[in-house]
């Protein structure tokens, strides 16, 4: 009988979450590199370049790939012949491992988990508790999969109870465009089919943990092999989702998904549950087995696994944000690459809610946003000589409901975030002759190198959601919504969908 010791299990969990914070899976890097090599849209290729360079920087520097270091999810398959030498429960041991990983002083990870989600929403400070899925199986080992899922991709999860005669392909192709770019494509779609609603969602999540092998499946089909129903469905969805032209970061292009994963399970005759969960550009997971011989020894990948490329936005226009005017903004065109220099402020969900409440009460804000730019970000705490940790953008659509009042009442000129803006936000931008700039999701460590000074200036109690003042130098951004409200995310994917020519573009 195998004996799993408490300390071995806890340390293995801690090591795994540190490991995946800065190492992409090798198969993801290989798949993204292939997509980068064939990409024809310069904007999408630039975004993928940033993601690949950021990934290598994180691997070298042992710092997070993304500022959103995710909610800790653990899948366990515990052999029936395993005995635990432990005083804590399995959930408690996982939580202790997560706590150690996220508070490691050499590589602090961002605490994003909030207790009392329907009420006070207070940060637990150490990213616990983890979400644990446990299955008792035959054998005498413990198989462990650790994943860190960011909020941007988790928030785009979809679920439907289809009729038995409904087309899964039709549902996916109708649903993926509604997900926007907040899940930071190119990534992977996980789909669960059958069982019950909760079973379908769990299968969708678990399917994301498997090896990227769509190209092997394509070769198998080309060789004339007989494919299963699931294999045929994977290939069809892979081709057709990419044919939607959404592209990297929603900028339009050839690659939206690097793979489509599917797990299925028998279901009720009256039902067809389907769940779809995306994995983002910060795909993070690792699998290992404990056999009682000690904690896991995870082997670092070779830096030769990354492509030998660099990122230098030489084509960008340098902008002094300290002297910015509406006239300057009016000259910027959708798709322009800008290099920001000067002072910007940060603020995301909690800070915006608090500022709007203050405005509604007639109270002065703690920061003067007149002719300033706000960056939607919750950075990782710095370590060593860093002024700030990885600081990539958060999903901008969550701030849409605050946008008009912020622009109307604060003198704000522009916003930086990731993914698209909704119609109401674009109208507010046009009405105020403002601008929305996009930074690349999945390039947080790279972006942080452009931040030369950082200090909290308001709402310190909000932790990573406090308002910071950043002094930036050549921070790369792209004009995503111009001063007239024209959105690259609304226009570019349709152009690339038409260019690819597999799926007709609807008027």
Describe the 3D structure.
The protein is of the alpha/beta class and 507 residues long. The chain has 15 helices and 19 strands. A five-stranded mixed β-barrel has the order 14-15-16-17-19. Strands 6-2-7-12 form a four-stranded mixed β-sheet. 48% of the residues are buried. The model has no long low-confidence stretch (mean pLDDT 96).
Strand count, sense and barrel status of the largest sheet are: 5 strands, mixed, barrel
The shape is: globular
Number of strands: 19
Overall pLDDT level: 96
Strand arrangement, major sheet? 14-15-16-17-19
Distance between the termini: 65 Å
Instruction: Give the helix level as a range of percent.
Output: 25-40%
Task: Name the features.
507 residues, alpha/beta, 5-stranded mixed barrel, 4-stranded mixed beta sheet, 15 helices, 24% strand
In short:
The chain is globular.
Topology of helices and strands:
Layout (H helix, E strand, L loop, with lengths): L1 E4 H17 L3 H13 L3 H20 L9 E9 L2 E4 L4 H13 L11 E2 L6 E2 L7 E7 L4 E8 L1 H4 L3 E5 L5 H8 L11 E8 L2 H11 L6 H9 L6 H14 L14 E9 L6 E8 L5 E6 L26 E4 L5 H5 L6 E10 L2 H12 L12 E3 L24 H11 L3 E4 L5 H9 L3 E4 L5 H5 L2 E8 L8 E15 L6 H13 L7
Helix pairs in contact: 1-4, 2-3, 11-12, 12-13
């Amino acid at each position: 009988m195998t004996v799993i010791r408490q300390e071995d299990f806890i340390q293995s969990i801690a090591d795994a979450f540190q490991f995946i914070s800065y190492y992409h899976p090798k198969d993801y890097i290989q798949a993204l590199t292939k997509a980068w090599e064939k990409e024809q849209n310069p904007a999408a290729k630039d975004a993928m370049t940033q993601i690949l360079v950021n990934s290598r920087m994180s691997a070298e520097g042992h710092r997070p790939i993304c500022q959103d270091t995710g909610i800790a999810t653990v899948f366990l398959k515990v052999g029936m012949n395993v005995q635990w030498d432990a005083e804590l429960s399995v959930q408690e041991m996982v939580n202790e491992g997560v706590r150690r990983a996220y508070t490691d002083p050499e590589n602090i990870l961002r605490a994003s988990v909030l207790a009392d989600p329907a009420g006070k929403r207070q940060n637990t400070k150490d990213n616990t508790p983890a979400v644990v899925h446990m299955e008792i199986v035959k054998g005498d080992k413990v198989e462990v999969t650790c994943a860190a899922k960011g909020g941007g991709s988790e928030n785009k999860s979809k679920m439907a109870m289809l009729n038995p005669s409904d087309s899964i392909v039709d549902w996916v192709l109708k649903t993926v465009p509604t997900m926007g770019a907040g899940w930071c494509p190119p990534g992977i779609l996980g789909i669960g089919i059958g069982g019950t609603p909760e079973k379908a969602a769990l299968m969708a999540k678990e399917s994301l943990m498997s090896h990227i092998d769509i190209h092997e499946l394509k070769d198998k089909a080309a060789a004339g092999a007989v494919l299963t129903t699931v294999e045929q469905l994977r290939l069809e969805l892979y081709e057709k989702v990419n044919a939607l032209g959404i592209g990297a970061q929603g900028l339009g292009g050839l690659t939206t998904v690097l793979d489509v994963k599917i797990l299925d399970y028998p279901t009720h005759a009256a039902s067809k549950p389907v769940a779809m969960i995306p994995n983002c550009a910060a795909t993070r997971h690792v699998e290992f087995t404990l056999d009682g011989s000690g904690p896991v020894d995870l082997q670092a990948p070779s830096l030769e696994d990354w492509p030998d490329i660099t990122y230098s936005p030489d084509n960008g226009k340098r902008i002094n944000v300290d002297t910015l005017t509406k006239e300057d903004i009016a000259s910027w065109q959708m798709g322009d690459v800008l290099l920001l220099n000067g002072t910007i402020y940060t603020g995301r969900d909690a800070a915006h809610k608090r500022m709007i409440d203050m405005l509604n009460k007639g109270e002065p804000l703690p920061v003067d946003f007149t002719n300033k730019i706000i960056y939607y970000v919750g950075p990782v705490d710095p370590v060593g000589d860093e002024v700030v940790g990885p600081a990539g953008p958060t999903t901008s659509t969550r701030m849409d409901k605050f946008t008009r009042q912020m622009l109307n009442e604060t003198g704000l000129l522009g916003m930086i975030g990731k993914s698209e803006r909704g119609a109401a936000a674009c109208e507010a931008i046009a009405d105020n002759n403002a601008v929305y700039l996009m930074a690349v999701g999945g390039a947080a460590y790279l972006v942080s190198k452009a931040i030369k000074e950082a200090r909290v200036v308001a709402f310190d109690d909000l932790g990573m959601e406090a308002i910071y003042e950043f002094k930036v130098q050549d921070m790369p951004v792209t004009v995503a919504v111009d001063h007239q409200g024209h959105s690259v995310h609304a226009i570019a994917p349709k152009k690339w969908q038409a260019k690819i020519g597999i799926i007709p573009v609807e008027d």
